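Contributing new records

If you add data, match the layout below exactly. Sequence lines come first and carry their own label; structure lines follow with theirs. Keep one chain per record. Anything else will be rejected by the validation script.
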Amino acid sequence: MPMPITPVGVPALPRAEAPVQSTGKPGEFRSILESSLSQVEQLRGDAAQAVENLIAGQGGELHSVILATQKAELAFELGLQIRNKVVQAYQEIMRMQM
């Protein structure tokens, strides 16, 4: 026996949720950014020291020096990309009309 046709109801719309409140402290972004920049600078200093030690013949192996320089380069590139994204977000906010 065929099933009877039932009316189609209106699909339930998602409920609007309250905006997420920021749980961060004032100045937290700045402190995170400063600590990240200091870590990048630390890696750069370590790489420079490793290169100087290798050139001076004070020990150290070539592969560890290359590894240190690559870490410093990757950290710098990551920091540069983060800076670009922050500047891009700032420019987007400044283009918004109130």
